[in-house]
Design a protein that fits this description.
Blueprint lengths: L11 H17 L12 H11 L7 E4 L5 H10 L5 E5 L2 H7 L5 E5 L2 H5 L7 E7 L10 H11 E12 L2 H4 L6 H7 L4 H11 L2 E15 H9 L11 H14 L4 E14 L1
Parallel strand pairs: 1-2, 1-4, 2-3, 4-5
Antiparallel strand pairs: 5-7, 6-7
Helix pairs in contact: 2-3, 6-9, 10-11
Length: 264
């Protein structure tokens, strides 16, 4: 059963796509994917540094998932009020409900934005979630975010930069999916168009050796939404290719996260 939160789509097609995404995250909540593990401290520190988060700030995590990043930020900074974690998947939010320093709210992006007062938030971050927003309405979404930020407020968006190297995708799959997502540079242009200023970009790269059994299980559990578009056979074919390429018990895993910061 997929929980029902406030929706953003205004056509049947958009709602159907949103339901598919919600179904994906409902299916992987609490199943031993990376959403269940402790978040990378370097990611937390990057958000804190880029957003210059201070204890008195009201911080929002838009597309919060299981809320680990928000909780880690709240505790590291010593925020005086909890991070507001907004996500359309109640199942994912339920995973973070007991974490320190967070308050959850189940809603889609535009539905939540439309309920917020102007100039009411100090900092907003969006981690690896902007590809789930309605790509045709990004200008409206970020224009709404700009209005709710206080003067001098900051927004930080991160996107995965490791998808191409992550998996032996079926022929043409990576190229086709990439066309449907706005690049980090494209997001900067949209933010500039709606009135954001003072842009900065940075990235975190890390190479780690992960046991094959652990990594392959993540693929089979479809730990990111792209895998939900692959059949079981396509996933097994990719795993077999990786297994042939890496003979040892561990497989090298590159994690790359690109960050874009903008100010009001």
């Amino acid at each position: 059963v997929v929980s029902q939160c406030e929706v953003t789509g205004d056509t049947a097609e958009m709602n159907a796509e949103g339901e598919a995404v919600l179904g994906h995250y409902a299916s992987i909540a609490g199943t031993g994917t990376e959403y269940d593990t402790e978040v990378d401290r370097e990611v937390v520190d990057t958000f804190i540094r880029c957003l210059e988060i201070q204890p008195h700030h009201l911080v929002v995590d838009l597309g919060a998932g299981a809320c680990q990043v928000a909780s880690a930020i709240a505790q590291r900074v010593g925020l005086r009020q909890p991070v507001l974690c907004v996500d359309p998947s109640q199942e994912m939010l339920d995973m973070g409900r007991g974490l320190a320093g967070v308050k959850t709210h189940c809603s889609g992006d535009m539905a939540w934005i439309n309920t917020m007062k102007e100039e009411s938030v100090d900092r907003i971050f969006i981690r690896q979630a902007v590809h789930h927003f309605d790509q045709e309405r990004l200008g409206d979404i970020f224009g709404g975010i700009l209005k709710m930020l206080k003067p001098g407020g900051k927004l930080c968006i991160s996107k995965r930069g490791d998808l191409e190297e992550m998996f032996p995708w079926p022929a043409g799959f990576y190229e086709e999916r990439s066309k449907e997502e706005v690049t980090i540079e494209g997001l900067r242009d949209i933010l500039r168009d709606v009135g954001f200023k003072k842009f900065m970009m940075t990235k975190n790269d890390k190479m780690v050796a992960t046991p094959k059994t652990e990594r392959y299980q993540q693929f089979r559990k479809r730990f990111i939404s792209w895998f939900s578009l692959l059949s079981d056979q396509e996933i097994e074919t990719g795993i077999a290719a990786l297994d042939e390429r890496h003979k040892a018990k561990d497989v090298p895993v590159l994690t790359r996260e690109n960050f874009l910061v903008a100010s009001k």
